[in-house]
Amino acid sequence: MMRWLPLIGVFLAAPVWSADCEALLAVDGLLELPDAPTNLTAAASIEVDGGLPAHCRVQGYVAPQVGFELRLPTADWNGKLLMQGCGGLCGAISSAACDDALARGYAVVATDMGHQGPAFQSLWALDNLPAEIDFAYRATHVVTVAAKVLVEAFYGRAASRSYFRGCSTGGRQGLVEAQRFPEDFDGIIAGAPVLDETGTAALHLIWSGRANLDAQGRAILTPARVDAVRAQILAACDDIDGRRDGIIDDPRRCRWRRALNDCGTSELRVDCFSAAELQVLDYLYEGARTSTGRRLVPGGLMPGSEYEWVPYFVGRDGPAVFHPDGPIKQLYQALIFFRDPGPGHSAAEFDFDRDPPRLALMETLYSARNPDLRRFRERGGKLIIYQGWDDVEVTPLNIIDYFETVQRTMGGRESAREFARLFMMPGVAHCRRGPGADTVDWLGYLERWVEQGDAPDLVTAHHLAKEQTYLGLPRPRFPLPANAVAWTRNIAAYSGR
Ligand SMILES: [Ca+2]
Hints:
Layout: H1 4-12, E1 38-46, E2 55-62, E3 66-73, E4 80-84, H2 99-103, E5 107-111, H3 129-155, E6 161-167, H4 169-180, E7 187-191, H5 200-210, H6 223-237, H7 256-259, H8 275-286, H9 327-334, H10 360-366, H11 374-378, E8 382-388, H12 396-409, H13 413-417, E9 420-425, H14 442-452, E10 458-464, E11 485-492
Parallel strand pairs: 4-5, 4-6, 6-7, 7-8, 8-9
Antiparallel strand pairs: 1-2, 2-3, 3-5, 10-11
Helix pairs in contact: 3-4, 5-9
The structure holds calcium ion (CA).
């Protein structure tokens, strides 16, 4: 018997609803919680405010330094726990990202993943393997363990369901949970997962960041030329889905070489592209390769995503991804290698023939690519993955490659559909934004699937009247007010090509 159980029993001898929030600080046994020794630093009752219900806000950390915040509705708890994933390199507790779920009656929890700092700053990881283990997989799991115990201590009963939701790094967290800690969650929403932060994700960024630089490091394509690329791509491919709406529903059907005019030997014009420009476009659309042409990632950027290239890969001052505070520098200096090169080194040194195999050492920590989800399926878990087709930060074809591997591993498409579904979102960038419809009540779909067996074949996606910002907060709350929605469309679960 775990040591904390009898102690919590003593605590629960008091009537649950009279147990005030601050009493959580006196729960014994948290320090000895197996695998997740937990210390609470604050517990405060928060009044109704800003559309949020009254709740108990609990702050603390799992040793040595995995920070978390748990918010427990003090009335009208829906009986469930939701963990909200992080973004970038995390480093902050993104509580506001789960306000919508708190408003729905969820107990909600989020973690900083073991370190504090800006979302794209990696010095915490420099020669710090324990911190990287926290960020890779441990923090999400141990905070889940601690949150479940605290929920039970507060309400006198365990959560009836536990869900995870996240996008980008949060999507990776969700897949890591399904793969490595399948008991933690009944349902997982993994948006635009960074499948392997230090593997294909890093290769894709370094490759695409370099694609537009000539031998002297000067930009080849300008932002204006990217607009010209986009115009020709849309002219050729927008209506292959039957609708001329500025969105290519399945960009795999768009042949970018055929869509773009080659200047050949004639002079460069607005309506054609030089050999050097076409070479850049080949790098960007086809993705990272060795010098002998062997693919290192399942694909590059999709036709139709060009509005996302500036300034990420094409900027007046060079690609933004290569800026000193950009993701490539941060990943390179302290995450992707087992021995960190440190701040004095640059991804410009990366050798696509020699270095990719070296990434395997850290991928063993970070990878969310394991397609064997039997344990998650057998415990009744449900998995929703969503991915924007116009995402340039992670490659959509990488997600499809993973999902199709899951389908093959788990007994075929029909068998995999019983517990895992992928939604490819036309015209949607990384997690949100873009000309498509980016806003879906994923949590509602997950609830109906887990709790009522109503699997999502088709989801309704909303294009909001006011565009969400990059990590747009507050997250929209469902049901959306009618005047918040510009238009909607349905998106079917991905089945295959
Ligand atoms: Ca279209």
